[in-house]
Amino acid sequence: MTMVLLGMLVGTGPVAAQSDVMGGIQAAIKSGSSRDLARYFNSKVDVNIGGDNGNYSQSQAEMVVRDFFSKNTPMGFSFDHQGGSEDGQRYAIGKYNHKGGRYNVVVKVKKYGDSYKIDTIEFK
Fold it and tell me: What is the band of 11 on the pLDDT scale with cuts at 50, 70, 90?
């Protein structure tokens, strides 16, 4: 019985880690915290905001997202759908509500070593 329980706990490790990351990302976006969100950025991040695309360093991406949050203060955010592929890429799709309207958000993360990092974030 103990071996089965241990196997079940060990087997859920990657799923739990990915879920924790998506929960942290969701909380950061919902609160409009570019600093908290940047903790999940890979060293290079593709950022797309309203059709303006760029590939930024972690610190540059934080500044771009900070500017977006300051102009579009969040009034609500949640992920509606999450999924992934066999190669370790995960994604989440959600709705970002602000005073002027709504953006659809797509976040793509990939596992690097022991942690998941954001490769792409889109506000469309």
Answer: very low
